[in-house]
Amino acid sequence: MSKFADFQLPLIKNEPPKNYGPQSVEREQLVAAYRELESQLPVTIPLGVNGKDVKTNDIGEQRCPFDHKKVVARYHRASPADVQAAIESALEAKKEWENLSFTDRAAVFLKAAHLISTKYRYKLMAATMIGQGKNIWQAEIDAAMEIVDFLRFDCKYASELYSVQPPENSTGVWNRTEYRPLEGFVYAITPFNFTAIGGNLAAAPLLMGNVVLMKPSDHAVLSNRIVYDIFVEAGLPAGALQFVPGDAIEVSKTCFNHFDFAALHFTGSTNVFRSLWGIIGENVAHGKYRTYPKIVGETGGKNFHLVHHSAQIRSAVVNTVRAAYEYQGQKCSALSRLYVSRSSWEAGFRDQLLQEVKALKVGAPLEDLSNFVGPVIHRGSFDKLKAVLQSAAADSEVEVLAGGKADDSTGYFVEPTILLSKNPKHDIFKTEFFGPILAVYVYEDESLEEVCELIDTTNAYGLTGSIFAQDRIVVRKLTERLRNAAGNFYINDKCTGAVVGEQPFGGARASGTNDKAGSGMILSRFVSPRSVKDTFAYADSVLYPSNL
Ligand SMILES: NC(=O)c1ccc[n+]([C@@H]2O[C@H](COP(=O)([O-])OP(=O)(O)OC[C@H]3O[C@@H](n4cnc5c(N)ncnc54)[C@H](O)[C@@H]3O)[C@@H](O)[C@H]2O)c1
Ligand SMILES: N[C@@H](CCC=O)C(=O)O
């Protein structure tokens, strides 16, 4: 592969938001795209193997969470033989894909970003709204802005990584570091809740020259397939990315049993990730793989807001409501435990919080644009959340301050709920519910150290957290004290809404490997660097001076 210049990437900037206000062009175009997609349901989705659509005899259904009778997609499910074929054709495609220059690989993803920002923006948003139950704004920040940002910033970070070269060359020597793609294939498993994350789980390793098998979440097959099609339209060669929806355990088993399995790129729940790590670890112990697979996973959270008595109350309330209830609390970053000082609680926090939460409208995204809270994703989630509400209502240690009801007559709707408890070790402060349920503990103003200890040790997670305080000395102390409690830490802001290029995202402890999606750090997990020493001097004596 000849090289005649060091090309510069175009200036990489965040995708600007559109605002979708009344009478705006973007609102009109989005609604039109939504209606068009709605008229085409159910969409048939084949596998994408070696660049070809493959149909199987095994059909799965993705249903609309706010209207569960409506089938959004009928998707073909891969058998073990289909997955095996996908792996072999990915390994075949690898030779050409990894030998393309970085410029050409980056061009594919910059073009995909452009296509999503323009031609496919509203289609991808509509699929995310109908399939995953997002309202307009939540779809815009995910299926338009964040995915475009991932694709563009990945190119910038990859280019920066490639430029990291050994700082020293002895006389007559040229040292170089080559960032080789992994030997084998990458297996990407996507979550339901972010179209952008699904896209980036495939795109990040692909950009570094890897080939990828993508198993979409059963509840995001439509949006994930549109992303796959966009990558292909942008010039991704056949076979570099294989789209294999199917039984999660079966598809994974075939991947994990393959000698050339080189990396897992996962986003989803903690328990699933732990079990996958166990399977891979066991296989490693039996020498099943060519190389030690990389394991990259972003998982659950039980994220906190800590409101100090010096906090500006109104701002802390507004941020609390948004963080807990946007997208029905189904962001891994969502707020689910609030620790508020008694004086703030009594000086207006409580009343404003209740007033705001009771005013939140619940319903389908386009039925009424003022609906702030939509449906939870599926029957399993609805049943689990309903059981949490029932047990809270019967629990003498818990007071239901707002919400508490659930209705699945048309869609999976759960009321935005506030649970107050005097027991800070209650399960409501420990378990990730992944729904619109906020647990509240009111602490005495003078017990700041005790509350920090609670935040840090009550559960196993370490994903996101925020502190609200105007007193700068307190801000400094809390920032130090809670250093390991969150991988994304916010001061006087909500614990959701990380922006690629601004706040690389991820947490440690039970929340994941903290490789930070939307940064160069994660890209470095998908390469196997080679150090090359190129010597120009001739050797002419075996003995060293010290041997003389
Ligand atoms: N930390 C982050 O960056 C981040 C981002 C988004 C979501 N999440 C987490 O994801 C979870 C919600 O997403 P979800 O409901 O899609 O999670 P999930 O764990 O149920 O599913 C995630 C993916 O794993 C697959 N899967 C499920 N069981 C499997 C098994 N036994 N073997 C192999 N694959 C399996 C699913 O089919 C899906 O594709 C929450 O816990 C949330 O906190 C974390
Ligand atoms: N990056 C998103 C969360 C992604 C997880 O679901 C945020 O910061 O809110």
From TrEMBL:
Start and end residues of each Aldehyde dehydrogenase domain: 61-526
Catalytic reactions of this protein? L-glutamate 5-semialdehyde + NAD(+) + H2O = L-glutamate + NADH + 2 H(+)
Q: In which pathway does it act?
A: Amino-acid degradation; L-proline degradation into L-glutamate; L-glutamate from L-proline: step 2/2
Please name the InterPro entries in this protein's record. Ald_DH/histidinol_DH (IPR016161), Ald_DH_C (IPR016163), Ald_DH_CS_CYS (IPR016160), Ald_DH_CS_GLU (IPR029510), Ald_DH_N (IPR016162), Aldehyde_DH_dom (IPR015590), P5CDH/ALDH4A1 (IPR005931), Proline_metab_enzyme (IPR050485)
GO MF, any single term? L-glutamate gamma-semialdehyde dehydrogenase activity
Q: What's a Pfam family this protein contains? A: Aldedh
Q: Tell me if Oxidoreductase is a UniProt keyword of this record.
A: yes
Give the GO cellular component terms, alphabetically.
mitochondrial matrix
Spell out the catalytic residues.
E298
The record's keywords, sorted A to Z, are: NAD, Oxidoreductase, Proline metabolism
Q: How would you classify this enzyme at the top EC level? A: oxidoreductase
Which segment of the chain is annotated as a signal peptide?
none
> Does the keyword Oxidoreductase feature in the UniProt annotation?
yes
Cited NCBIfam families: D1pyr5carbox1 (TIGR01236)
What is this protein identified as? Multifunctional fusion protein
